[in-house]
Write a structure and sequence with these properties.
The structure is a homodimer. Helix content of chain A is 36%, strand content 19%. Chain A is built from ten helices and eleven strands. Chain A has an eight-stranded mixed sheet with strand order 1-5-6-11-10-9-8-7, sandwiched between helices. A three-stranded antiparallel sheet of chain A has the order 2-4-3, with no helix packed on it. Chains A and B meet through helix 1, strand 1, strand 2, strand 3 and strand 4 of A and helix 1, strand 1, strand 2, strand 3 and strand 4 of B.
Chain lengths: 307, 307
């Protein structure tokens, strides 16, 4: 049932996770598991709905807000778990079910990005050492992959918009970067890089804002080069209860539905940041795959939940 | 938010998985991921239903039948993944969302049980070596846990029924053993043990039958001692397409709904067996927990999907 190519992809998938876990272990990260079934309180778009006995539940889109609870006690945590998005999207870039490598720890975003790039460096080094022959199946040389080294280049959102405008893209400051824009930027580089400090208008409400320029968030996307685009994202979280209350007001989030988290924040939450890397996105770049569906054995796409 | 006890439980949880993965690595098992979202073709009881765009899907209850496809190519595979059961049950023993350590490999059941018990032995040895102080939080001495050694005692289903009848239980051959019966049997032992060769009447249709006594299946449950009962189950799979077709007939399973798998079986399936261990069940025994909810950070039970 699996082709030779699929076998090679799955070999890279397994080794990639092995490398990630080795790095987590060596660096003192604690493995945790958040829930997959989460309460469906507001009517959130993009979530899969589950019939949960006489209630309804959603399928999780990541470890937040549970990460904050873990981090308060364990300082540096990670999870590797399936994640779900009920979005119609290109099968080139989107799966409805994908696996996330997710990290949270007590530090600011700059420090977090150092860990994030160190993890990706370690994964690339490990792949080139452990399975150089498998990399060759995808026209990747172990030597080139071994050249992925920290620190990764960093581009601010402001710089990215300037660069895109100079290259003829019709983009205004404050807009979300489209996939075509990400692709264009990532074609200019040969290794992974960050785009940092996205404007508040493109981000979710629980991102901390930049103290120096409140219209920006402390956020950073990790992009793969060669036109592959975003593979991960990271943010520093709001940990001040009053700031969070105010944000919820602005975004019309019912605080009653987040009461346990707000109660938790009031006295227990510590400053922390987190990142998530999409496993299949990372594989897509590693194996130079046109369609992300190829990165997993039994892919789930909007049109396909079979076999 | 987490008590000292919960911190100790989560520490054991993380170390237990670390020990399992070390054992898998040392023994050449290949890590795979099956889908969580599976097609909802027949009307299966006990499955959570997901609204999948304009279709419906179910949440997975394990790696079958995907395990068979992986095993055909990779020989010895494992996965660690969340699993879902839409069943009302005692919060002492049942979660609606739990994590499974699942293995499949090309061998018969007797050989598989050797690997299963070796894994559990390795986990117990690792816990006693790596986190003896954490074990003490649960009145477990590292010395006693280090005494968990293979081979584990094996009791046939026939012997289990005889023993229960002798002890005054009202049980007939062919009945499923209840939780009270399991508990009674497991109170007699000080270490994990197997109950083997359950009758066809208590098992699912894809279990291979015993060539010597076709009314029995090649199956084995792994039980924890001290009254904790079942923590894992293992079976040898049917790999003959004609036998499977006949079984599906008997069980009124629509073969059309399993066509991809039947096509796959016709020429590619290799003899194989598999086992699954419930992570929270294993933790429940390790930490002497009354309620299985305690074995995870954010438990999901029939009445609770919050926070």
């Amino acid at each position: 049932m699996f082709s030779e190519k699929k076998m090679a992809i799955l070999t890279i998938r397994a080794e990639l996770l092995n490398a990630a876990r080795c790095w987590f272990k060596k660096n003192g990260y604690f493995e945790v598991h958040g829930p997959t079934l989460i309460p469906a309180v507001d009517n959130w778009p993009g979530y899969f709905e589950v019939r949960y006995f006489d209630k309804k539940a959603y399928l999780s889109q990541g470890l937040q807000p549970y990460a904050a609870v873990f981090v308060a006690k364990f300082r540096k945590i990670y999870t590797v778990a399936p994640t779900f998005r009920a979005e119609m999207g290109s099968t080139k870039r989107h799966l409805t079910e994908y696996w996330r490598i997710e990290v949270a720890q007590r530090c600011d975003l700059d420090k977090l990005m150092e860990f994030e790039e160190a993890l990706v460096e370690h994964i690339c080094q490990s792949l080139s050492k452990q399975i150089p022959e498998t990399l060759k199946c995808f026209q990747r040389s172990a030597e080139n992959f071994a050249k992925v080294k920290t620190p990764f280049p960093k581009l601010t959102y402001d710089e990215a918009v300037d660069s895109l405008q100079n290259d003829g893209f019709n983009v205004n400051w404050g807009q979300k970067l489209t996939w075509e824009m990400e692709k264009h930027l990532s074609l200019k580089l040969t290794g992974p890089f960050f785009i940092t400090k996205f404007p508040m208008s493109t981000e979710t409400f629980f991102n901390k804002s930049d103290p120096e320029r409140p219209e920006l968030t402390l956020s950073a996307d990790l992009l793969a080069p060669e036109g592959y685009g975003e593979i991960g994202s990271s943010i520093q979280r709001i940990t001040d209860r009053n700031v969070m209350s105010q944000k919820m007001d602005e975004e019309n989030v019912d605080p009653e539905h987040q009461r346990w988290y707000m109660n938790f924040m009031s006295n227990k939450s510590r400053p922390h940041s987190g990142f998530a890397i999409g496993l299949e996105r990372l594989i897509q770049w590693t194996c130079k795959l046109t369609h992300i569906e190829e990165a997993t054995a039994f892919p789930r796409t909007p049109s396909n939940v079979y076999p």
